[in-house]
Amino acid sequence: MEPSKPTLTSLQSTDTLHSTLNLVESSNGQENFKSDTQNNDQVPEDVPAPIDTTRIEEKPSIAKEEIDVVPDGGLRAWLVIFGITCCTFTTFGLTSSWGFFQAYYQHSLLQNSSPSTIAWIGSIQYALAFLPCMIVGRLFDLGYFHSIFVSASIILVSATMLVAQCTVYWQLLLCQGFLSGIACGVIVGPTTAILAQWFKEKRALALGFTAAGSALGGTLFPITARALLPRIGYVINDQGDP
Fold first, then answer.
1. Residue 31 to residues 17, 22, 27, 116, 217: CA-CA distances in angstroms?
2. Contact 103/118 with Cβ under 8 angstroms?
3. Helix axes 203-240, 98-107, angle to 10 degrees
4. Given CA atoms 175, 176, 179, 180 in this order, what sign does their dihedral have?
5. Is 176 within 8 Å of 121 (Cβ atoms)?
6. For residue 30, what pLDDT is reported?
7. pTM for this prediction
8. What pLDDT sits at residue 91?
9. CATH number for region 75-235
10. Alpha-carbon torsion angle 11, 14, 15, 21, nearest 10
11. 131 with 185: CB under 8 angstroms?
């Protein structure tokens, strides 16, 4: 005979059994939760204390509006443009006058040299008026404007005065080609960058004034030299050009 299976007398007994099991499970879960909470509340001794960020003083920061302020006008800004115009007048105006100097050298100082050989002086001078900008621009960003500008101005004046004493080709190539060209390039680089610090909306107008300085110098230098050469000679005329 097969063993008899236990049978539940009623549905009420089944409900009572399930309720008892649920109570046991819930009580066990609460005890586990309490034990985990107590363990979490115990801070290990090797854990550093939290940093109080409220006591950290914030460093004063310059607002973006203060950095980007551009005068875009005013007396001082236009005086800066006048100074830049004088620089382009002296540098690019001088290099643009090379055609007159080549014609004079061919008929007086360098009669034995070919025109292509003489043209190297003006070519080197004009090329060096742009080449130093790669180095000078970085020095300008580092804050060395005044030192390089004053040094280049002294070199330009000295080289121009030495040109008046030159009598052979290599002397003219050194003084007027290399020294004068490098000095012009060192002056032009930072002065052009300064313009953007003073003008924003009127930058095109300001740039037009500075560009006019080179055109004005390229026009006045040959006219002045042509008028003064027959009267005072080459030495005094060349020293007084810049």
1. 22, 14, 6, 103, 95
2. no
3. 20
4. positive
5. yes
6. 55
7. 0.66
8. 93
9. 1.20.1250.20
10. 180
11. yes
Per-residue pLDDT tens for 200-217?
Answer: 888 899 999 999 999 999
Q: What is the mean pLDDT of each run of 10 residues along the chain (242 residues)?
A: 48 52 56 52 52 52 54 88 94 91 88 92 92 87 90 94 89 94 92 87 90 92 86 60 47
- From CA 193, how far away is CA 199, in angstroms rounded? 11
Cα separation of 186 and 90, whole Å? 13
DSSP 8-47: -S-HHHHHHHHHHHHHHHHHHHHHHHHHHHHHHHS--TTS
| The amino acid at 96 | S
- Tell me the domain boundaries of the chain: 75-235
- Token pair in block for residue 180: 């004068």
Closest CA to 190 of 56, 84, 91, 33: 84
Residue 102 to residue 177: CA distance in whole angstroms: 12
Question: Tell me, what amino acid is at 117?
Answer: T
